[in-house]
């Protein structure tokens, strides 16, 4: 493409120059750091201090770190810290011990016992060497310690005998050390000792006890370039590295030849660290971190600013580079992750791909490429290997890799309605011809005529015009096209016929999803396609059968969003996802996952951000940049990590070095002898591999208990309650490729038997059993002798027991049998009283009802006695006002007392207001005592009932009458069952009329004793009787009364139910509120008027209301609630002390949903509230379902529910069904309700908003018209939608299908 003006050409040249300069600077910056992203280890990960002086790895594989705060051991998960002193250097000896140095002291640390030995504080050392500063040291393979001092030369100490030799420079002696200042000491693989002194390099000759000096600079052709040595290092292959002021010299171990390489810049200080990896690279720390290779030379990896004053370096056995810093902790680099190359974005995916990956000059970039949408990038290759690509701007380009030239290829004529933002799809058929597709059209490129030949038919049906074609492949028979939401299409190249493949729920052989992201042909199987989906994994599609095999996270994929599935030449598929890159074996379907820990720039990739080069290299674009790699160079991890024990717990207590471990640390323990009660064992272990720790798996097995290995992600083995015996615990780990290591750590466990299972204990048990057997035989013989005498007594007792049981069963059965005829007497009598109003009829019917109630009471007493006798009656406490409770019972006898001319009085004396008591049993006690007193008190008499409290806190109820009294002879027997006083001497003048059944007082006594109380009686014949009942009722603690009217006691969420409590007694209201604080939001009101206002304001889910209240009582509140259509749906539970039948009927008649009598049980009230809320929820679900279910047509809305609000709502909606302007505001006007009130009412009844109710009603009515044969558009206008497209969208959201699909299925949703 040419630019039209000279100014544009100048602008383009300037832009090209700037981009070229920017790309060159980026390459230089990228080359300055050849390390992968580091893992940073600081105090947050458990490091004791940020200044790191030295890092080594011991024989077992642990990493040891020296800091200014002591020594730390790292197992890959946590640090174990030892703090003797400041550490400047760590080295290991041949025995596996650690030697640590600071400026003046040298310590030896034994990892087996985890103890320090202060070597320089020993008497012999202080005697001969005092406190001379140590510059360097070495423990050689002959267990000798070499010390280099700043001015006192060199010392060699035999650690077995403490004998030593000192070497100093002797002027005139050419075989003495070259200088008394020694800066470094090493030992090569031949056992030779090499020294770096201020004057050069020395080698110690053991045979001649002399030093051989290397040639100084310029002495011979094989001399060192200069004599200022900065450091010595012995490579793994035995070669000696010598760093001088300006050169690095390699002395070959076999020939002794020297090879010098000039340093990047002169080194003025001592080299701080050397190390080597398994690829033959050496790492040197000078003024920065350098990588040196014999072939490539030096490469600066990081300067002092890049790795904050690098202090040391170490490469462990798993090729992890550990870099010690001055105050910034440790930088850990995985040297095996360099197989992935990352390139962060600079200009965008398309431009960076061409310039940085394909190395295309910036001047050859197509105009506007940096601004193009990278999601439209598509490419293919022709037979000559040229790259054809497009970025969706109606242009196609061809790149020649040899000439690095990119030229535009003219596009074919596009349809008039073509959109410029659509991607240009490219592919190559098996014959090598280039194909181009745009939306529904396709062309094939004629190379001979340099023109595009159009396909005579569309690649997808015309009715699918709204969806874009995303990617396609062409084989010898057909074109295969994927879409973003409508599945896969196959179009026959000969006939043009299309076949559609989509996801079918329930069919596991269909596509797993209709949202497709990529399609690739399998180069090794012409009948196989690999199709990625957005959220449902990968599909292995068979062209012959049209069936798919689903591959998801269950099959090993890292994520179910698949952006790319590129097949390579080696039989693998490379799958880019949201959570990493997956390599899939196309035959075995085995997977291997790569993440940022393996070197990926980021774990999340993008759609259509990929390129596969002709040489099989792959470039993938993600959120942060491009990751490029060669699949053929990726290798499996072959490292075999050893496994070490890091901690042992016995009975949840850490195992420390001691007698049990033979004074060794747990990492060195191989066997444990444990007591029988030391059988709860926890073993923590670690794999000694420090790269990609998250990919390492662990397993363990306890032979003698576990039949097989137990695989775990957490390296911890836990065994509880192990039986005595011998066990072997085997611990193992995999490497980062999932290959189990051949190194298995074992721990032998012996759990000894307890003393009571030893042989002498078993012998004692045997003798004891013999003695017991003898005693049993003797006892058996005695028992036979006594059996005859005991059988007679047993038979007598059995007969008495059977008679007692028969009596109890008789009373229980007869009382139950009485209930049915009593009910048949009472119920018709009550109905007749309501029908016959004549006084004479009323008197007779009242007599029948009263007698039936007395008979029912007698039956209930018999039933209580039978329950008491069977032990089935239990005391059940509830909280209540004892004065009001007993006062109400006394008040219920007032009419009867007045009718008999008896003065019945109640005196509540000093007692608390509320107690915990059994209301049912107390009511029976008080009822029987008052009824008994009334029965035997003549006209004009008095009955006093008193309620008080003793000093000990017991409740005392006394009833004293002025009746006929009881003689002293009968007093001891009045509480016996069925005892009656019938003779005239008792004081009963009319025994036939006054006598009872003899069970009332007996029941009272047993009920009092059941509650832990006692009853006493005093009586004088002719004067009266006094009954005293003492009950140990607990005083109820007064509840705090909150000052605000509305108290929020639970966090308000959409799931919390709102309760309104209307109660004038603040203490009782607080108690009820605290009962529901766990899962309810509470509102409070002190009378009915306040409750009604709060109900309108807060719209609670349920109301609990008292009946007797000031201003407005509970009955009036219920009537007002039910009259108001806005709040008529709220259920109401009335709570009152009125337990009479008439009171309950009045409450329920006003519209109350439930009725609870005081005092009540807390659990009963909670269950009643829960049941009412559950009924409301089920009603709401039913109404909501009726609005959604298409199989329940709204032909007669008025009959669908009895809810008054809906009876008004549905006709209004039906009347305005075809009015598209009818909405919430119009509905509020016709309902004469505010917008907020109608919204709350809708939410309470249906769980839907007002808009959703109107829309769902229209859609439900639409089902009726669709079934009547109307088209989708006609139906849309008929039910008030002014846009058929919006109607289709709403219909699909509600019924999961379009109106057309609904009709096609016969009107079945």
Kindly list the characteristics that best describe this protein.
ATP-binding; 7 domains; phosphoprotein; five-stranded mixed sheet; Immunoglobulin-like; Methylamine Dehydrogenase, Chain H; alpha+beta; 74 strands; sequence-specific DNA binding; disordered N terminus; 22 helices; 1309 residues
What does this structure look like?
The protein is α+β, with helices and mostly antiparallel strands and 1309 residues long. The protein has seven domains: 39-341, Methylamine Dehydrogenase, Chain H (7 Propeller), CATH 2.130.10; 387-632, YVTN repeat-like/Quinoprotein amine dehydrogenase (Methylamine Dehydrogenase, Chain H), CATH 2.130.10; 643-757, Immunoglobulin-like; 759-840; 874-1035, Heat Shock Protein 90 (2-Layer Sandwich), CATH 3.30.565.10; 1057-1178, Rossmann fold, CATH 3.40.50.2300; 1189-1304, Arc Repressor Mutant, subunit A (Orthogonal Bundle), CATH 1.10.10.60. It contains 22 helices and 74 strands. Helix 4 (759-835) runs antiparallel to helix 5 (839-870) and helix 8 (919-935) packs antiparallel against helix 10 (1000-1010). The longest helix has 77 residues, at 759-835. The two termini are 55 Å apart.
């Amino acid at each position: 493409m040419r630019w039209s003006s000279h100014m544009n050409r100048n602008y383009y040249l300037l832009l090209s120059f700037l981009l070229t300069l920017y790309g060159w600077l980026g390459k230089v910056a990228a080359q300055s750091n050849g390390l992968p992203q580091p893992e940073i280890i600081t105090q947050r990960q458990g490091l004791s201090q940020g200044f790191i002086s030295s890092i080594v790895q011991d024989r077992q594989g642990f990493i040891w770190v020296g800091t200014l705060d002591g020594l730390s051991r790292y197992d890959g998960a946590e640090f174990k810290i030892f703090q003797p002193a400041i550490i400047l250097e760590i080295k290991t000896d041949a025995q596996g011990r650690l030697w640590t140095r600071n400026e003046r002291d040298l310590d030896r640390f034994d990892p087996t016992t985890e103890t320090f030995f202060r070597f320089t504080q020993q008497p012999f050392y202080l005697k001969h060497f005092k406190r001379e500063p140590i510059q360097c040291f070495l423990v050689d393979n002959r267990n000798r310690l070499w010390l280099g001092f700043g001015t006192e030369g060199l010392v060699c100490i035999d650690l077995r005998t403490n004998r030593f030799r000192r070497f100093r420079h002797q002027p005139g002696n050419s075989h003495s050390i070259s200088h008394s200042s020694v800066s470094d000491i090493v030992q090569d693989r031949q056992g030779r000792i090499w020294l770096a002194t201020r004057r050069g390099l020395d080698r110690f000759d053991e045979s001649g006890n002399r030093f051989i000096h290397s040639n100084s600079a310029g002495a011979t052709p094989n001399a060192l370039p200069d004599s200022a040595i900065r450091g010595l290092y012995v490579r793994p292959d035995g070669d000696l590295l010598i760093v001088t002021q300006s050169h690095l010299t390699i002395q070959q171990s076999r020939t002794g030849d020297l090879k010098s390489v000039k340093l990047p810049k002169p080194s003025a200080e001592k080299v701080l660290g050397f190390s080597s990896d398994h690829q033959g690279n050496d790492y040197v720390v000078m003024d920065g971190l350098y990588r040196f290779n014999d072939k490539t030379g030096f490469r600066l990896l990081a300067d002092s600013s890049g790795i904050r004053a690098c202090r040391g370096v170490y490469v462990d056995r798993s090729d992890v580079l550990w870099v010690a810093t001055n105050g910034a902790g440790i930088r850990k680099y995985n040297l095996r992750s360099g197989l992935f190359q990352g390139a962060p974005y600079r200009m965008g995916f398309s431009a960076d791909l061409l310039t940085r990956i394909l190395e295309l000059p910036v001047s050859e970039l197509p105009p506007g490429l940096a601004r193009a949408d990278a999601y439209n990038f598509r490419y293919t290759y022709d037979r000559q290997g040229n790259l054809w690509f497009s970025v969706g701007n109606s242009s196609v380009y061809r790149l020649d890799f040899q000439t690095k030239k990119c030229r535009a290829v003219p596009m074919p004529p596009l349809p008039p309605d073509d959109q410029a933002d659509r991607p240009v799809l490219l592919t190559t058929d098996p014959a090598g011809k280039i194909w181009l597709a745009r939306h529904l059209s396709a062309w094939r490129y004629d190379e001979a005529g340099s023109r595009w030949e159009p396909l005579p038919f569309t690649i997808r049906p015309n009715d699918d015009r709204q969806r874009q074609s995303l990617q396609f492949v062409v084989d010898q028979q057909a074109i295969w096209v994927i879409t973003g939401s409508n599945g896969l299409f196959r179009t026959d190249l000969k006939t043009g016929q299309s076949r559609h493949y989509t996801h079918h729920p329930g069919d596991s052989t269909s596509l797993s999803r209709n949202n497709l992201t990529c399609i690739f042909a399998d180069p090794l199987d012409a009948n196989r396609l690999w199709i990625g989906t957005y959220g449902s994994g990968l599909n292995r599609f068979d062209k012959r059968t049209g069936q798919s095999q689903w591959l998801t996270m269950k099959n090993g994929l890292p994520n179910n969003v698949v952006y790319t599935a590129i097949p390579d030449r080696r039989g693998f598929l490379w799958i880019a996802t949201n959570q990493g890159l997956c390599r899939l074996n196309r035959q075995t379907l085995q997977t291997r996952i790569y993440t940022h820990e393996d070197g990926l720039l980021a774990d999340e990739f993008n759609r259509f951000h990929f390129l596969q080069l002709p040489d099989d290299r792959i470039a993938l674009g993600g959120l942060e940049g491009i990751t490029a790699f060669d699949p053929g160079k990726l290798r499996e991890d072959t490292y075999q990590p050893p496994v070490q024990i890091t901690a042992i717990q016995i009975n949840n207590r850490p195992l420390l070095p001691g007698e049990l471990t033979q004074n060794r640390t747990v990492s060195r323990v191989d066997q444990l002898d444990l007591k029988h009660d030391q059988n709860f064992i926890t073993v923590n272990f670690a794999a000694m591999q420090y790269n990609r720790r998250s990919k390492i798996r662990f397993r363990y097995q306890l032979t003698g208990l576990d039949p097989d290995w137990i695989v775990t992600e957490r390296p911890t083995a836990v065994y509880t309650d192990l039986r005595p015996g011998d066990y072997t615990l085997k611990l193992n780990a995999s490497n980062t490729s999932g290959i189990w290591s051949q190194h298995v750590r074992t721990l032998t466990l012996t759990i000894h038997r307890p003393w009571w299972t030893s042989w002498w204990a078993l012998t004692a048990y045997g003798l004891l059993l013999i003695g017991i057997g003898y005693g049993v035989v003797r006892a058996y013989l005695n028992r036979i002798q006594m059996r005859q005498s005991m059988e007679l007594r047993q038979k007598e007792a059995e007969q008495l027991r059977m008679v007692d049981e028969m009596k109890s069963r008789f009373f229980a059965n007869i009382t139950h049998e009485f209930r049915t005829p009593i009910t048949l007497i009472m119920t018709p009598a009550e109905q007749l009283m309501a029908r016959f109003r004549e006084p004479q009829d009323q008197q007779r019917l009242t007599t029948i009802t009263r007698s039936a109630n007395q008979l029912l009471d007698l039956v209930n007493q018999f039933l209580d006695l039978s329950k008491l006798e069977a032990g089935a009656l239990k005391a059940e406490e509830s909280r209540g006002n004892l004065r009001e409770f007993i006062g109400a019972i006394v008040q219920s006898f007032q009419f009867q007392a007045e009718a008999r001319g008896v003065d019945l009085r109640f005196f509540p004396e000093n007692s608390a207001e509320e107690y915990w008591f059994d209301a049912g049993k107390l009511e029976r006690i008080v009822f029987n005592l008052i009824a008994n007193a009334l029965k035997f008190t003549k006209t004009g008499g008095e009955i006093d009932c008193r309620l008080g409290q003793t000093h000990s806190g017991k409740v005392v109820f006394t009833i004293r009458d002025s009746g006929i009294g009881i003689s002293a002879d009968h007093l001891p027997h009045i509480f016996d069952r069925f005892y009656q006083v019938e003779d005239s001497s008792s004081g009963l003048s009319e025994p036939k009329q006054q006598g009872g059944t003899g069970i009332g007082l007996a029941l009272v006594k047993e009920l009092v004793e059941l509650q832990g109380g006692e009853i006493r009686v005093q009586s004088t014949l002719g004067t009266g009787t006094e009954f005293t009942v003492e009950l140990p009722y607990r005083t109820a603690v007064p509840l705090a009364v909150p000052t605000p009217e509305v108290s929020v006691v639970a966090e308000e969420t959409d799931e919390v139910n709102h309760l309104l409590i209307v109660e004038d007694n603040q203490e009782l209201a607080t108690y009820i509120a605290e009962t529901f604080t766990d899962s309810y939001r509470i509102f409070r009101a002190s009378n009915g008027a306040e409750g009604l206002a709060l109900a309108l304001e807060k719209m609670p889910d349920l109301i609990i209301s008292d009946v007797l209240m000031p201003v407005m009582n509970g009955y009036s509140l219920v009537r007002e609630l039910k009259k108001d259509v806005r709040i008529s749906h709220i259920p109401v539970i009335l709570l009152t002390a009125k337990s009479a039948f008439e009171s309950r009927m009045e409450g329920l008649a006003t519209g109350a949903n439930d009725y609870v009598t005081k005092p009540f049980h807390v659990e009963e009230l909670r269950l009643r509230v829960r049941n009412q809320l559950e009924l409301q929820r089920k009603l709401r679900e039913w109404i909501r379902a009726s609005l959604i279910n298409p199989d329940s047509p709204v032909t007669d809305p008025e009959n669908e529910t009895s809810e008054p609000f809906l009876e008004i709502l549905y006709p209004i909606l039906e009347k305005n069904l075809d009015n598209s302007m009818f909405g919430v505001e119009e509905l509020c006007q016709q309902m004469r309700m505010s917008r907020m009130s109608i919204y709350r009412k809708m939410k309470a009844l249906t769980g839907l908003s007002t808009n959703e109710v109107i829309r769902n009603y229209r859609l439900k009515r639409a089902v009726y018209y669709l079934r009547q044969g109307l088209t989708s558009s006609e139906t849309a206008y008929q039910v008030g939608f002014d846009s058929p497209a919006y109607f289709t969208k709403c219909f699909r959201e509600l019924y999961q299908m379009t109106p057309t699909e609904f009709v096609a299925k016969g009107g079945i949703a």
